[in-house]
Amino acid sequence: MIRLPFIRFDADVPTPSYAHEHDAGLDLVCTRDITLEPGERALVGTGIGIELPEGHAGFVHPRSGLAAKHGITVVNAPGTVDAGYRGEIKVCLLNTDREATWSAERGERIAQLVVQPVVHCEPVEVDELSGSERGVGGHGSTGG
């Protein structure tokens, strides 16, 4: 387990935590009451900043329950938090429901943060790429 130093930009937000022992994402909460009309989006603060270890990044994912029950998602999912960023983590939420308004009260869980190692690569231009079974087949080329 790695240490994840964090600060509170809002003294009342809870410590980021996992809801269950083996969960992948730390819960992030909103720092204000929010209401999103159908199709509306908003940038919402979480009240925390983190210091990711070198070679890691944080990825802000939607909460599956909010997505399934209310159509609430993260617009740029997953949002990327780079290791050098020290500001407040904010989440760009979107209400995809066509009819229902969605509301959350201050302190409610709105997203989750997954911390992962990041591999840096050196882009090298070549004349052609090696062949593969899939080749150049794109979206939908494997069925479904």
Automatic annotation (TrEMBL):
Cofactor: Mg(2+)
Residues engaged in binding substrate: 63-65, 76, 80-82
GO molecular function, one term: dUTP diphosphatase activity
The enzyme's E.C. designation: 3.6.1.23
Chemical reaction(s) catalysed: dUTP + H2O = dUMP + diphosphate + H(+)
Pfam families the UniProt entry points to: dUTPase
Enzyme superclass (EC): hydrolase
A Gene Ontology biological process term: dUTP catabolic process
Superkingdom of this protein's organism: Bacteria
Functional pathway: Pyrimidine metabolism; dUMP biosynthesis; dUMP from dCTP (dUTP route): step 2/2
Record keywords, A-Z: Hydrolase, Magnesium, Metal-binding, Nucleotide metabolism
InterPro entries, A to Z: dUTPase, dUTPase-like, dUTPase-like_sf, dUTPase_trimeric
Domain dUTPase-like, chain residue ranges per copy: 13-143
Gene3D superfamilies, per database record: 2.70.40.10
Family: Belongs to the dUTPase family.
Matches recorded under HAMAP family: dUTPase_bact (MF_00116)
Main function: This enzyme is involved in nucleotide metabolism: it produces dUMP, the immediate precursor of thymidine nucleotides and it decreases the intracellular concentration of dUTP so that uracil cannot be incorporated into DNA.
Protein name from the UniProt record: Deoxyuridine 5'-triphosphate nucleotidohydrolase
